[in-house]
Amino acid sequence: MEETFNIEEIKRALTELEPEIEVNPEIEEIKKRLGEIPSQVYYLSQRGLEVEKKISDLKHTIKRKKIERETAMSNTRMELLKKYNQKNKLYLEQLEELKGELSSGKKKLSQPFINDFIKANRPEKPTQSVLDDFAFVRTQSKATEILDLEKQISNYEHLLSSLRILTEKYETTKYAVNKHADLYIAEHRNGMKGQSM
């Protein structure tokens, strides 16, 4: 999208456009409208194309951000599992060392104490739910960015609807102006015929 795109400028310009025409316009008003309506319709169609492009760009950005978030969530889950595996490896090494010391007679511990020691030091493997929750919380800022972009799309879609409605009004006005012009031409011809008699 070009650097000059400005939604507020487009909204302001829309409020200045006047597609309606008087019920019984003067010939000068008809001439003026015949000259300006095509440029107004062109202006509206150009702004519509800009807004459509902006919407398309935002949709692509949202897709990219969703992929980035999913990747970040996956990396977070893998990171947690890696930490668990490291803790579990250390735990198993300590357990083997303790077993060796107990079997060699270096340490004398009661069986209930050994059982409590094993339970207390065993790392807890994170469940899928815990992994998902942690990944969700860690990537919340990315989710907020996506929501903000979706809100922008909604605003642009509303603007696009306004542009289309205004274009339709201009097309209707163009039709009315052409009919008024036809009437003036017919009246002018009838007036000239009446004068020649």
Provide structural commentary.
- The chain is an all-alpha fold and 197 residues long.
- The protein has one domain (38-186).
- It is 85% helix and 0% strand.
- The protein contains five helices and no strands.
- Helix 2 packs antiparallel against helix 5.
- The longest helix is centred in the N-terminal third of the chain and has 78 residues, at 27-104.
- The model has no long low-confidence stretch (mean pLDDT 87).
Topology overview:
Elements: H1 7-16, H2 27-104, H3 111-121, H4 128-138, H5 140-196
Helix pairs in contact: 2-4, 2-5
- The end-to-end span amounts to 64 Å
Arithmetic mean of pLDDT: 87
Percentage of helical residues? over 70%
Total count of helical runs of at least 4 residues: 5
User: Secondary-structure element order, as H and E?
Assistant: HHHHH
The 3D shape can be described as rod-shaped
Number of beta strands: 0
How is the biggest beta sheet arranged?
none
Which spans have pLDDT < 50 for at least 5 consecutive residues? none
The gyration radius over C-alpha positions equals: 37 Å
Total number of domains: 1
**Fraction in beta strands:** under 5%
Structural class: mainly alpha
Pick out its properties.
197 residues; mainly alpha; 0% strand
